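Sharing a chain and its predicted structure for anyone who wants a worked example. Both blocks are below, sequence first, tokens second.
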Amino acid sequence: ALFLLAACLVAATTAFAQPAPAIPAKPGEAAGTVQVGKTTVTLKHAYATGPADRGGLVYDVMLTDGPVPPEILAKGLGIGGAKALLNSGKLSGITLLVGADGGLRNIIPFAGDLRGEKMLASAGKLDSFAVTPGGLTGQGRKALADTMGQGWSFAAGWNAAVAKP
């Protein structure tokens, strides 16, 4: 009975999202993780473009485990640029499409076996989000239970310089 109680407590605590890490002080830095199954990726780098008008102002945010080379970053965060590194597995991380109000239009993990095949749309609001003259900062998280059975979670804080799309 004690073992069963302990197992239930572990299951209950893993069902909740870990708190989002603090926002890093320096632009270009991220803190946190994205987890897919048994694979955990430590997020260290933050990139953003925007604002773009897609039925309202939005920002593309990319959080990665490694740096994006400047020549690739110059091509943008999309499929012809930095996202190609995520798709190929050369980098791991997560992308977020964030409305100017901090609303998550979509979140896509690129880690472990997931390389953009799964996503959440209309995924609520970030814990914090601010656009300043110096860049864009945010904190967000989604627990395993919040990703609709897709088998991934994330918790991150970031500080990104914003490039024009």
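Comments welcome. The CA atoms of residues 64 and 93 lie 4 Å apart.
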